[in-house]
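User: Thanks for the earlier help. One more: Methylamine utilisation protein MauE domain-containing protein. Can you show the sequence and predicted structure together?

Assistant: Of course, both are below.
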Amino acid sequence: MKKDAVALAALLTTTGVLHFAVPRPFDSIVPRSLPGRRRTWTYLSGAAELAVAAAIVHPRTRKWGGTAAAALFVGVFPANVKMAVDWRHASPGKRAIAFGRLPLQVPLVLWARRVAR
């Protein structure tokens, strides 16, 4: 299995599990414009990450999984923007994390597209 695929699947698995194990931080960055409960969105996005990770590890579904991962990284971008806005007056460390996540989405999308090829 390609190292890139294994690493991406591991990242998605880790974050997917964290959505269930420690949901509160994820709840806090769910955009208010989404309908329903924030926890529901946290669990749905965690389940999506786990499903995409599973698709990536299997060679038959890797192309689909990589494409879905790229879409997922684009789809969660509004949550990262919300975090940056919410933390704009936080400590320098928190601001660095929040604002650092924004440009990180670009290499994540490119990584997922590479895995899809």
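User: Great, one quick takeaway?

Assistant: The chain has one domain: 3-116.
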